[in-house]
Amino acid sequence: VDVLLDRLREIVGPLHVLVDADVRASYEVDWTGRFAGSTPAVVRPGTTSELAAVVVACAESRRAIVPQGGNTGLVGGSVPLHGEIVVSTRRLDRLGDVDVVAGEVTAGAGVTLDRLQDHARRAGLAFGVDLAARQSATVGGMVATNAGGLNFVRHGGMRQQLVGIEAVMADGSVVSRLERPPKDNTGYDLAQLLCGSEGTLGVVTAARVQLVPSPESTVTALAAVPDLTAAVTAINRLRDRGVPVQAAEGFFDEGMALVCGHLGLTRPLAPSPAYLLVEWEGVADAFALTGLDDAVLAVDDHRRAELWRFREAHTESVNTLGIPHKLDVAVTPSKLDELVRQVRATVAGMAPDAVLVLFGHVADGNVHVNVVGPDPDDDRLDDAIVAVVLAMGGSISAEHGIGTAKRAWLGLARSSAELNVYRRVKRALDPDGILNPHVLL
Ligand code: FAD
Ligand code: MLT
Ligand code: ZN
After folding, report:
1. If 199 and its partner were Cys, which of 122, 161, 411, 436 is the partner (CB 3.0–4.6 Å)?
2. 153 CA from centroid of ligand 3 (Å)
3. Is the C-beta atom of 31 inside 6 A of ligand 1?
4. d(CA 389, CA 349)
């Protein structure tokens, strides 16, 4: 390792090879505290060519690497669980000028989501993906996980925003295809192949992304609903009348109580079994279309952000209870209440003392299942919930990816023919298993 570390210091400069235990610490554990490992060094290249040289040096020493952006991933894919070298992309943080005609911009992998959003806003545009970890999550990490988030209902996820990519492959070669004309059918789409590959096929160094028009006026409503079917019906009523719904989030009273307790907030509404936070572009009057009555509406940014806190603070509030079992599942929206009923029954039967907090992106049929109580290393409850989801024809990972946390269940979600193709792709692009070898497959 010492020879490798000297070589890495030559490449990126000694200041950017972090070896002190206390400096490495935050790179070695994931956001939930569930996944912790150790690394000989965190390397912080400042350019694409430095990053390429780092990959070559690690490959020559047969040392695997874990690419890391903001380390906000929720499936244990961004931390060195097997002594890998951590390659942090945070210094690759250049933002190009916005091409306002094409509505596109190139961002370095280390650009955080909030910076990209600000940059787009200053050009009179917006970025189509948003999520609560916006101050830390990076463009590279969001591409690598194909992040979904809060505006998926309107704009889709990272895959839909991705125009082009620059990446370092396992052999140190750099593929770069950022700007391109609107039409271009010249071979495999490497940007889309790397999107969602979770650092297993290449290290993203920059991405060119599509921007979207900035909404003229946004209305946020937090409404009481009896169940998620009522929430989905309300959203559909808006959409059927052509109202551009930008976000549609659901959560339950246990989550509302938890968040209010954690942040010291007063409940915005009388207690209700469930809540819908729905946001659309347009005027407040459109709320009448939902058919709901008990609601708080906000139009100015400050009040809207206050309403969002009740939903966005779920993740951090759950963390205060202990290390959660986290599942990120999806079913077709008409089955959401049945999913919730079965998950509740499964947890009540197997772990009656556990705290169960459910919330998610209702319009996408996506529910985040958080269970605190059972030993984090005991997967029996997770197995049972996964079985429920699969029996309903659902997805066992709707937006967070597979990482190391969900690897055991990948074979239940993908056929052996598909997995064979995955393995052949991985072997072709990374024959020595240098890039995140313990993630996904
Ligand atoms: P990291 O955590 O650093 O890495 C994630 C994965 O990508 C790892 O496998 C890593 O090896 C790989 N990777 C990172 N950078 C690169 C790169 N440059 N090249 C190749 N591989 C790379 N996710 C959603 O989809 N929707 C949400 O609504 C959402 N909300 C969240 C809210 C909170 C409070 C938190 C903590 C997380 C949330 N997440 C959400 C999960 C997470 O923020 C996203 O997955 C995000 O895309 C990860 O970005 P990151 O830069 O932190 O990546
Ligand atoms: C969210 O939607 O807030 C997330 O994906 C984070 C989580 O699942 O905790
Ligand atoms: Zn989510």
Report:
1. 436
2. 12
3. yes
4. 17
